[in-house]
Design brief:
There is one protein chain. The protein is mainly α. It has one domain (3-293): ABC transporter involved in vitamin B12 uptake, BtuC (Orthogonal Bundle), CATH 1.10.3470. The chain has 14 helices and no strands.
Length: 308
């Protein structure tokens, strides 16, 4: 295979992996605080439609990305209020959030179906982008791609190198003890949920402004659920989320190239490959109980009501 073609495939993998990486990194922080938000899919689709709509109205995809971040954070605020302030069941509330997001996005985006999108252009760094073969790979990607890599590094540093990160992890492991030590458990979890929602919104914006610059109802196509599985796959470690996201992104792109090469495999089977890979990974993890327990926040999905 020609080297230029290989680089083109790698760039495609990067584009397919970025939404997964953003959503999974945000959810990792949420779960590290002891909150399980199954509404990632709903927040992503809201971010996608909001980002696309803002870009269409203003003609600026960067404003679209900012609007998507705000929409994802606002949507997560609803989840936080219900689960943290009212102590509702986190699993049921997250599922309801996804259903609400899918329905609401369809209503908001009805008038944008079929409209050509405004794509967020790749960064063009003089001389560096023009380097043969690797120039576009290293210096010619979109801003959200670079932001996702910076985000993973920042989250890893925050969780394991800062006092605030230690406090967040303590809230996820034992909120009662953290509360007794004076750590604001509810406020910490609120901030974590808002951060996760913002990341999911940005992931959705990448889909509608970069990956497929258009609005199609249900365009997240289960990526929110894959992001949730990635967090478990990575055993709540940011660096492993990065590896997992790119593995799943490669599987997604592989199905397209298999179809283009005319490999005699049913198209429906190829389309299901990313989801089959998700199930396979979760089964492997479930068989190893020790691996499941490593780094798992001890109070994950358990509500906390401070003493009054």
């Amino acid at each position: 295979m020609d080297l230029v073609v290989i680089v083109s495939v790698i760039i495609s993998v990067c584009a397919a992996s970025t939404p997964l990486l953003l959503a999974a990194t945000g959810e990792l922080v949420v779960e590290r605080s002891g909150v399980l938000n199954l509404g990632v899919e709903g927040m992503m689709i809201i971010g996608a439609v909001t980002g696309f709509a803002m870009a269409q109205v203003t003609g600026n995809p960067y404003l679209g990305a900012l609007a998507a971040i705000a929409a994802g954070a606002f949507f997560s605020l609803l989840f936080a209020f219900l689960t943290l302030s009212l102590a509702t069941n986190q699993v049921a509330t997250g599922l309801a959030l996804t259903i609400l997001g899918l329905g609401l996005s369809g209503m908001i985006g009805e008038g944008f179906v079929g409209q050509p999108g405004i794509k967020m252009e790749a960064v063009n760094i003089p001389f560096l982008t023009d380097i043969p073969v690797v120039g576009k790979l290293l210096f010619g990607q979109d801003v959200i791609f670079y932001s996702s890599l910076i985000l993973v590094a920042a989250v890893s540093w925050f969780l394991f190198r800062t006092r605030a990160g230690l406090m967040l992890r303590s809230v996820g492991d034992n909120p009662q003890s953290a509360h007794a030590l004076g750590i604001p458990v509810i406020r910490t979890r609120y901030l974590a949920v808002l951060f996760g929602g913002a990341c999911s919104g940005l992931a959705g914006a990448h889909l509608s402004l970069v990956y497929v610059p258009q609005w199609v109802e249900g365009m997240t196509a289960g990526r929110g659920w894959i992001a949730l599985a990635l967090v478990v796959f990575a055993s709540w470690r940011p660096a492993r989320v990065l590896v997992g996201a790119y593995l799943f992104g490669a599987v997604t792109i592989a199905q397209f190239h298999a179809q283009a090469l005319g490999i005699p495999i049913p198209a429906q089977f190829l389309t299901s490959l990313p989801y089959l890979a998700t199930i396979f990974v979760l089964v492997l993890i479930a068989r190893n109980r020790r691996m499941t327990l490593i780094n798992t926040p001890a109070s994950l999905s358990q509500p906390f009501v401070p003493d009054r």
